[in-house]
Design goal:
The chain has about 260 residues and is α/β, with parallel strands linked by helices. The protein has one domain: Rossmann fold, CATH 3.40.50.300. It is built from eleven helices and eight strands. It has an eight-stranded mixed sheet, sandwiched between helices. α1 packs across α10. The longest helix is centred in the middle third of the chain and has 16 residues. The chain starts with a strand and ends in an 11-residue tail after the last helix. The relative contact order is 0.19. The C terminus is likely disordered. Bound molecules: adenosine-5'-triphosphate and magnesium ion. The site of adenosine-5'-triphosphate has 19 residues, from α1, β7 and α8.
């Protein structure tokens, strides 16, 4: 059965796209087939994070019924995840859409294990369309009150669409005294914290290399967090095996195998 998960937030810039692509990569490493759909229709950024450019077709072509299937707009990234980018042209802004997102992804249902939708920030039309198309929601927040307050609105909105809240990812956590603690965030949102991702320059470095952290820095703490989250989502056990040898790191950098989390 295909699980359709939306990664949403409320406040912008908290790390939705980062969580989406890294969770997708970690699930791929566990042998699951995953397609990431950029639900950020007007200001898409999945393709920017991953350096997927000059694609002949995008999600806009699916929504506009210019291509028969979303499969024609699905591209393989070197990390192993498949991606449906949204069109970045400003001519896409304000266009009337013929198909809603739920109908657009129909062709993937039954064909893949996970569809992960990277939602737009806020609670506007695009974010709502992503929540409506999904069955489950992961909320991303930073450990600050304004972000957590907006996350609460996203949790409430998801309820209106019967989208099941899986929990919260607290991202960019540094652990200093000014931040909210994960337990307080969980209480505030009345939702479990699934994962606490540290503030790390590896995230920015990976984005600058147009790659996921999971693929670029397989033995980093950030990767470990995403592997733990992915393992929990599929009910598998994951044990951190420590840092990998230099040779295996060099191998993965130059296109080593992606068969499983421990083989890289
Ligand atoms: N754990 C982290 N540590 C350090 N920097 C991070 C972390 N997660 C995300 N960032 C940085 O924060 C910025 C925003 O991240 P991202 O694009 O994933 O957020 P977003 O919620 O998808 O934003 P938007 O609302 O614009 O779609 C990026 O520049 C990224 O490098
Ligand atoms: Mg984003």
């Amino acid at each position: 059965m295909t699980r359709i998960i939306v990664v949403a937030s409320g406040k912008g810039g908290v790390g939705k796209t980062t969580v989406t692509v890294n969770l997708a990569d970690a699930l791929t490493d566990f042998g699951r087939s995953v397609v990431v759909v950029d639900g950020n229709i007007t200001t898409p950024n999945v393709a920017l994070h991953l350096g997927i450019k000059k694609t002949p077709y995008t999600l806009h072509d699916v929504l506009d019924e210019r291509i028969p299937s979303i499969r024609n707009a699905t591209y393989l990234h070197r990390s192993g995840i498949r991606v449906v980018p949204a069109g970045i042209s400003i001519y896409n802004l304000g266009r009337k859409i013929k198909k809603n997102l739920g109908r657009a992804i129909l062709d993937l249902i039954g064909a893949v294990d996970f569809i992960i939708i990277d939602s737009a920030a806020g609670l506007g039309r695009e974010a709502r369309a992503s929540m409506e198309a999904a069955n489950e929601i992961i909320i991303v927040t930073n450990p600050e009150l304004p972000a957590v307050t907006d996350a609460l609105k996203a949790v409430e909105l998801a309820k209106l669409f019967n989208t099941k809240p899986l929990g919260v990812v607290v991202n960019k956590y540094s652990g200093d005294n000014f931040e909210m603690k994960p337990a307080n965030i969980s209480d505030f949102l009345n939702t479990p914290v699934l994962c606490v991702v540290p503030e790390s320059k590896m995230v920015k470095l990976s984005i600058s290399r147009r790659n996921t952290v999971v693929n670029e820095f397989p033995s980093s703490n950030v990767t470990r967090k995403f592997r733990e989250l992915a393992a929990w989502m599929i009910g598998e056990k994951y044990e951190y095996k420590g840092k990998r040898s230099l040779i295996s790191r060099i191998k993965s950098r130059f296109g080593g195998s992606k068969s499983g989390p421990y083989s890289r």
